[in-house]
Write a structure and sequence with these properties.
Blueprint: H1 33-52, H2 59-77, H3 85-92, H4 94-114, H5 122-136, H6 156-166, H7 173-176, H8 178-181, H9 186-201, H10 215-235, H11 237-255, H12 268-279
Organism: Favolaschia claudopus
Domain DUF6532: 41-232
Protein name: DUF6532 domain-containing protein
């Protein structure tokens, strides 16, 4: 038997100091430029997966996703290096970073959207507590009209959050990684719902108290929102698919970036007509 030619071993990312840093923590600056650039791109793409594909992947899926994003950034860069356990951990740790990022973008929107007021008087606190309770009853906060609970997933804060996090400029992550955000996924909405609910909880005493985003507790909240959203999307997929696509298109248009229209797709005018007809069938 002829021996198969073995593939040339992949290059290894080099450390600035010539050896791994001491201690458990490794930073991008510990690697030379070529390795650091690839790791950074992989971290950003991993974060996008957390925002759009699975916000709380289990340990096995975290590693699989790290390998997938590493292969993609290597292919895009036309240069690859071996993905070590140390580097994979640096990539998967970006999941926490991604979720915290959304918290930081959504928190400033809470008070102005829902009318929470600062102040220490009993009157102000009582009003805030009443608002807090109303918003969290049956997840009223995401409805266009929270008190009547009509307009599912249409509260203005949802689009405001999408724009603030990913569509602020033409170079926002929603533009750079448009294939992940077009249409807006149910995962993205479930994460936003989770973060909004967390932001409302910070007003539970009647005054604002900044809290730490508890990963374990909020995974349960996220899972429940994702189940509800999946049920909603299944009620009338022909409507919800259009709604989710329109969320992306509006967010993208706000940046001034041109819409990408795949071949064969209906025009915006045709989509609006279809949506108007479908919404006449009672979408809420």
């Amino acid at each position: 038997h002829k021996r198969k030619k073995s593939k040339a071993p992949l290059a290894k990312a080099e450390f600035v100091a010539g050896k791994p840093p001491g201690g458990s923590r490794t930073n991008l600056k510990d690697y030379t430029e070529a390795g650091a650039n690839l790791i950074k791109r992989a971290q950003h793409l991993y974060e996008v997966h957390v925002w759009t594909r699975d916000s709380y992947p289990g340990a096995v899926l975290q590693l699989e996703t790290a390998k997938d994003v590493w292969d993609k950034v290597c292919t895009d860069a036309q240069s690859c290096m071996e993905l070590t356990d140390r580097m994979a951990t640096m990539i998967t740790k970006y999941g926490v970073h991604g979720r915290s990022y959304v918290v930081d973008k959504v928190r400033p929107l809470i008070a102005s959207t829902y009318g929470f007021k600062t102040g220490s008087s009993d009157k102000v606190k009582d009003k805030n507590i009443a608002t807090y309770k109303m918003l969290l009853e049956e997840s009223a906060f995401h409805y266009k009209d929270p008190e009547a609970r009509t307009g599912y997933a249409k509260n203005e804060i949802i689009m405001d959050a999408i724009v603030a996090a990913w569509f602020k400029t033409k170079t926002g992550r929603g533009i750079t990684y448009s294939e992940y955000f077009s249409p807006i996924s149910l995962v993205t909405l479930a994460l936003i719902f989770t973060v909004i609910e967390f932001g409302i909880q910070e007003w539970s005493t009647g005054q604002f108290h900044q809290a730490t985003f508890d990963e374990t507790a909020n995974k349960i909240v996220y899972d429940n929102h994702l189940l509800d959203l999946t049920d909603w999307a299944a009620l009338k997929p022909e409507v919800t698919n259009v709604v989710l696509q329109r969320m992306h298109d509006e967010a993208r248009a706000g940046t001034g970036a041109a819409l990408i229209k795949p071949a064969g797709r209906m025009t915006e005018e045709a989509r609006e007509r279809a949506l108007a007809e479908l919404e006449g069938m009672d979408v809420d």
